[in-house]
Structures are given as structure tokens and as C-alpha cells.
Amino acid sequence: MDSVVNFRMLATALFLIASGNPIQGLPKENGDEEKLRNAEERIFRHILKENPEFATYYSFHDYNDKLESFSLEAFQRRKMECNDILNSIKTINVSNLSSQAKLDYKFLHSFLETYLEGFTWINYGALTPLNFLDKTILTQSWVYRTEYIDEKDFEDYFKRMDSIPRRIDELIHLMKAAIRLNRTSHLASIDRLTDELQLFKIQASLFYPIKLKEIILVNHIPNDTWTEIRHKIQNKVTKQIAPSYKNFKRFIEEEYIPAARPKAGLSSLKDGIKYYEACLKWYFGYNITATEVYNLGVSETKRIAKKMKEVMSQLNFHGDLKEFFNHLKDIPEFYNISESKIIDEYRDIIQKRVNPVLFNIFHHVPLEEVRVAGVENNAPWGSYGRNVFRVNVRWPEDRSTFTMLPLTLHETNPGHHFQVSYSNANPIPKYRRLYLSGKYYAVPLALPNYAAFMEGWATYAEFLGEELNLYKDPYEFFCFL
């Protein structure tokens, strides 16, 4: 019981610190606080500028004509800017700051310092920005996230298309450095990628903005622009983009894969253990060894397995855990639902089961609407971003209903969506509202996204389902475990 109480206190404290405590109110300004706020604005602008597709995703359109650079020069430019911002806040007299500003100072200092420490490991994971999880080369999400209002927006769009061959060349250059330094990925990290490259066909349709014709009509762009835009896209794909992808595919198959690391595990790399522990520090926010993480994992596995067996006994099931998991696949009432029913069920869980009871434990409930949308690909069963709960409806007959509640609690309320909504409702620095996901290949050379805080809170949200008496049967509770 004490461990649960401590966990609740820690989770709540982290939530308030990272979200901005509404009780504190806005800090009074002075010279040192002004320096701090200027530095926060600088890092915010820096993040948008250096991650232009990410900026587009968050509806900041100043960099719609650019793609993120993977050149070594870009790495050094980012290092210099972050180092300069860090030096600027070191001149601040922290004693002059309000209590909230002191927390903001510590947060920014740690944010910048964590990133800069990662440059010790620039010649490791950052040299291979591609694997079966990180697919920079295959994603063009900016196509449908770009704002199209006038002809300048299309000019920016074409400039971004022109940047694709340059970016592919930069990726190849980085990965050649990985080969030269014997820092390549293990084959297990990239073998599935080769299959996707085989299936991936570069077609002009991939680069047509959704509902392009409607966009042109609504914004009163001349009709002949429709044909001109289509021709431009087709020419750029045929003459620039497709040849670059073909060259990249050849490089992966003929150069990178033959040089893939023969031994699995980072311990096979020079200073691999130190590198691994630097990655752990990036995720945890403090020094911890692989052995400590392993021991914690073993302890938690035993604790959870014990609770699972208690549920099995409650259901009068006689067998081991493996047999019970197989048993769960053979209960017809939990399966055979359609795509539309999956989405409807998730909506009902949010609106009818979860939202009405949130007030039982939260005094301030920022109930921003969350939309449920179906996706059909190899994505996880559920994910969240920008007020959208994306649920995988591929092979709906294999989706079990007893998994839905824990997943909903994790991704929406009181999990990720609630967490983001709470932050949006409070006066926190803009850069902390941005969740720069991905780039896990580069860790620890990445701006921290505090996954331990984000995922830790979402996991805690699943536990809150128990406190709120939301788990209606042992099967839902088992899935939570």
C-alpha cells in the first residue's frame, strides 16, 4: 500500500511541475525572469526551425518550405545554438526568480544540458536515422498537414519537395559514416525496412494534397492552376524524387545491409555499455545502470504475474499464464466486431464511462474533446496526438473488447489527452507544450521528450481505472495488469 501511495504522490508532483501549477499563477516579471522567458522563446523557435515538418504538424507554417536536415553541419549548428541559450541563462541570478520561475529555470537548464551531453555519442545511433520503427525516408505526413490557402503555400510546398533528394543524400552520407566507424545497426533493426522499401512505390499520388481540387476552388485559385500543380508534382517525382529513392534502396541493399553489425546488443560496440547507460539517463533523467533496470523489471514482472494469477483463480481457471492467454483468444463474445463498432465502442467508453467520473478525483478537468479515428496499417492498437485517438481497425475480428478500457485510459482520459489538455490550460512555456516524438534512434543525442513522464502518467492513468471502479469484469482488469 505504501508503494502505491508513494507512486501516486510522485506522479502527481511530476504532473504539476511539468504542467505548470495553476495555483502559483503568473510570475511577476523582473530582469532575470525576462532573460528566462527570452531563452524559452529562443528554444521554442529553434525547435520549430530545426524540425520544420514537426512545426507543420503543430500548425506553425513559417518553415513549410523546408525539410529537416541530417547533415553534420546541421548537427553542429544545433549544438552551437543550444549551447548559446544555455550560457545565456547561466547569467541569471536564480534567487531573483519567483518560485514557479525557479522550476522553469531548472527545467530549461536540464533540457538543454541533456541534449548537449548527447553530443558525446554523435557517432552512434544518430548515424543511422532509419530502422523498422523510425522511417523518416518513408513518411510524407507533411503532405496532408500543410496549410494550402494561396499560391505561395504551393510554392513552399514545391521547395519542400525539392529538398527530398538533398535529404536522402544526407541520410546516405550519415549511414556511410556508420559503416566506416563500425557503428551500423544490427540486421534485426533494418531487415523489415528492406521489405517495406521493396513494397514502397514512389508515385505522384503520394504527393498530391488531399482534396487538392477543393482547396483550389475554396481559395479562388485560378482553375488552370490545378493542371499546372499536377504537372509540377509529376515532374518532380519522376525526375528528382523517384531516382533518389531508387539510389537509397540500392545503397541499403548493396552497402549498408552487408555491413550490418554481426552481434546483437550495444555491448558489441566500443564503449557500448557506457553508451547504453547514457541512453538510460536520457530516458530516466538520472544515472541508472542496466543491472538496476533489469532487477526492477524482474521485480515488477513477479508482482504483476502474481496479480494475474489471482484473477485466473477468481475465474476458476486452472492452468499457467501461457494457457490463459491462449484461452482469452477463444472467447467469442470478446471478438468478431466490425470497424465501425470498434470506433463506436471507444467513443462510448470515453463519453459514458470515463469522463463522467473524472471529477471524483480531479478538481480541474479540462475536457477538451478527443476524436476517435480508425487507421489501417501496422501501427500499434492505439496512439494519441493532437486531440485524436487513433485506433487500429485493421483485422477488426482480431481486436478484443476487453483490451479497450485500459487502452482508452492510457491514450485519452485521464492519460495522454488529459495530460496535454491540462498543460494547454495552464501558463507553461511554449516549448514544453510541444511533444517532439520519434528520433529514438538518436538517443541520447535528442532533445528530451521526457517519455518517463509522459508514459509514466499514462500508465498511472490505467491504475486510476481501478480507483474509479471502471473495470467492470476480471478480463478488463487482467488486461490492465
UniProtKB/TrEMBL annotation:
InterPro entries per UniProt: DUF885
Domain of life of the organism encoding this protein: Eukaryota
Keyword field contains Signal: yes
Statement: the UniProt record of this protein carries the keyword Signal: yes
Residues annotated as signal peptide: 1-25
Keywords, in A-Z order: Signal
Protein name: DUF885 domain-containing protein
Organism the protein comes from: Octopus vulgaris
